[in-house]
Amino acid sequence: xxxxxxxxxxxxxxxxxxxxxxxxxxxxxxxxxxxxxxxxxxxxxxxxxxxxxxxxxxxxxxxxxxxxxxxxxxxxxxxxxxxxxxxxxxxxxxxxxxxxxxxxxxxxxxxxxxxxxxxxxxxxxxxxxxxxxxxxxxxxxxxxxxxxxxxxxxxxxxxxxxxxxxxxxxxxxxxxxxxxxxxxxxxxxxxxxxxxxxxxxxxxxxxxxxxxxxxxxxxxxxxxxxxxxxxxxxxxxx
Length: 238
What we know:
Blueprint: E1 16-20, H1 24-30, H2 35-56, E2 60-67, H3 75-91, E3 101-105, H4 113-125, E4 133-140, H5 142-155, H6 165-169, E5 182-185, E6 204-207, H7 217-228
Parallel strand pairs: 1-2, 1-5, 2-4, 3-4, 5-6
Helix pairs in contact: 1-2, 2-3, 3-4
């Protein structure tokens, strides 16, 4: 048995968990609040879950913060999300003792110069951390990531007719990281939404109706317990 009681964490934990942080707007609507209130609540949940994953020994956590498609949302909502990101980055200096290494994944060129400076500072200030590797996918799209990787290889003079899976992986935003073992999507949706579509080839999935602002340590526990019970064969047999 991997674990004795349902309320205890299993011995086998996923090395890499990826989360699609979904349901902020619906959470706010249910309470008669503006969508921005949902994003504020979701930001607090993100920090709580990152700390908990670090506490229980998860090595990598990748969260979907803002997609390449999210620019289509109303300007006031986009501005509010960017303000939350700004505040998190300014405050990140206070998290240095938590031993979490932060990295941003995505095309950051569309962000303001101020945000890019803060992002660089956050990554540099946490580069020596040995705990959780926290990846924040920002202006990220899975298809866009693959196209960017191919363009990068072409610009380097690589022979694309001889391209290998490993070479492509080495030029993705997640280069040097293990692929996600477990992808979690709250809010009752059952799709990837252009998230880590290359890296998720053999990931396990766990879905819940819980909206992201209500997502808790209990949900992480249930997800990793479910993960531990699965038989991962990677296309082979046992």
